[in-house]
Amino acid sequence: MTRDEVMEYVGSENPKAVKLDDLDDAIVGFADQMDGPVLVYSYTKIVENIIERGDGTYEEAVEYVDYNVMRAIPYMGPHQPIILQPVTE
Questions:
Q1: Edge-to-edge strand ranges of the sheet holding 27-33
Q2: CA-closest candidate to residue 36, choices 5, 1, 77, 73
Q3: Residue 3 CB partners (closer than 8 Å, separation 6+)
Q4: β-bridge mates for residue 27, sequence order
Q5: Comparing C-alpha atoms, which of 4, 1, 13, 3 is closest to residue 37?
Q6: Where residue 45 falls among pLDDT bands split at 50, 70, 90?
């Protein structure tokens, strides 16, 4: 599925699914949850998106995401998006 198809599918199957503002490029898929599908975002792509917009250095982008995005997720309710953290070896 393309990113647009994922967003369309999730939106049609779960209209309450939370979509993060201005971060469509960071969507990497969807996950089925009890209340319907939710969007899955890449943590790395969110950080890269912020840097590409000129909103800070890597360190500033990580700090912003950790403080403003990751801390907000639990308060978004049962339709909250999932933020995928990469495995590092």
A1: 27-33, 36-42, 82-84
A2: 77
A3: 24, 25, 27
A4: 41
A5: 13
A6: very high
Residue 16 vs residues 2, 36, 65, 79: alpha-carbon distances, Å = 21, 9, 23, 6
The rounded distance, in Å, linking the Cα atoms of 18 and 57 is 27
Considering the entire predicted model, what is its pTM? 0.91
Question: What is the distance of C-alpha 66 from the center of its chain?
Answer: 12
d(CA 44, CA 80): 18
Return the number of other C-beta atoms located less than 10 Å from residue 57's C-beta: 10
Tokens of 39: 């969007």
